[in-house]
Amino acid sequence: MYTINKILVPTDFSENASNAYSHARQIAGRYGAKIDFIHIIPTLEYFNESLQQLDMPLDMDKEVYPDAQERASVHITELMNDHLEPENKGEGIVRIAPKPSKAIAEYAEQGSYDLIVIAAKGRHESDLLRGSVTEKLIRYSTVPVLHTDQPSIERIKNIMVPTDGSPASLQALPVAVSIALRHNASITLFHGLEKQETIIENALEDPYKSSAENIRDSIYDAVDEFFRESWDKVELRRGQGFESQFVVSTEASSAIVDVETVIEKGVSAHYAITSYGDEYADLMVLATHGHSGLKHLILGSTAEKVVRHSATPTVTVKPDFV
Questions:
Q1: What does the pLDDT read at residue 67?
Q2: Alpha-carbon distance 72 to 286, whole Å?
């Protein structure tokens, strides 16, 4: 079972960055997790070289960076005291690196973190700049990343998992099921078709069923196989129509997560995902890659478009074989 014991919260000390703090606090409260904050001071190599060429007496490594680190450490401690419960408070980390997003991703992996929580926007508020750190972090990180513009999520009742039926896209399920159990939430398996498409690749059409029913059955078969091979503690219990359940076995008992499968056509797959999520989902759990070669869903470009345009709080999961 996917669980959350360690949370990493990147911050640039901006007002927008503070949107992540309450999310991390709420998650840590439900899981009993520790929260560490991290701030990356970007290196100023060009500026440093320019000072040397001008024979300026300022030494970046001995004067500027240590002072910046000390100030950042004080600020990060203040933020953690103000926004976190004592029992969830971990460490404040300050590092110097040329690429903040890559440095955060590497630190999270090396530190065996279970989740990164970051605001979708940092110091710059423009949507065009949304990806400057957050989007690159999603691309680099092997650790799931929760990102949102919302200052808090009051309730999580419906968790959306976009899927094309590929094993890669289904790797979002353990995270989604774990969160669903903690919040007593349901899950929507969502398949977005572009208008010119009729059925997912390799689906066996039953002439007595509609295209949507055939797609549903193909997704169910893929979910069954994923659970058998990757997570045998969970079973898909197929119901009538497009309703089903995940039966999750624990040491002492079992728990049930209600599941709905939705098949929708749209102008594009990412538009269908974004539109449905923004209207119906409280949280989206999204694999960053799908079946290589498929047009339908979640090649990296489609996932990036969803991340860029969706207003729904989103957890991105990088498949471990991508």
A1: 78
A2: 33
> What does the pLDDT look like over 163-203, one tens digit per residue?
988 888 899 999 999 999 999 999 999 998 765 554 454 45
State how far the Cα of 285 lies from the Cα of 280, in Å rounded to an integer: 14
- 55 dihedral zone (left: phi>0; alpha: psi -120 to 50; beta): left
Q: Tokens at residue 83, please?
A: 């926004």
Dist CA 3 CA 139 (whole Å): 22
Instruction: Please list, residue by residue across 297-312, b when 16 or more beta carbons sit within 10 angstroms of its beta carbon and e when fewer do.
Output: bbbeebbbbbbbebeb
Among 18, 131, 20, 149, residue whose Cα is nearest residue 7:
20
Q: What pTM value is reported for the model?
A: 0.85
The answer, yes or no, to whether residue 157 has pLDDT greater than 90, is yes
**For residues 307 and 278, what is the distance between their CA atoms, to the nearest angstrom?**
12
Tell me what percent of the chain is helix, strand and coil, each rounded to the nearest 5.
40, 25, 35
Q: What pLDDT was estimated at residue 79? A: 95
d(CA 186, CA 259): 6
What does the DSSP assignment read for 192-230?
EEETT--S-TT----TTS-HHHHHHHHHHHHHHHHHHHH
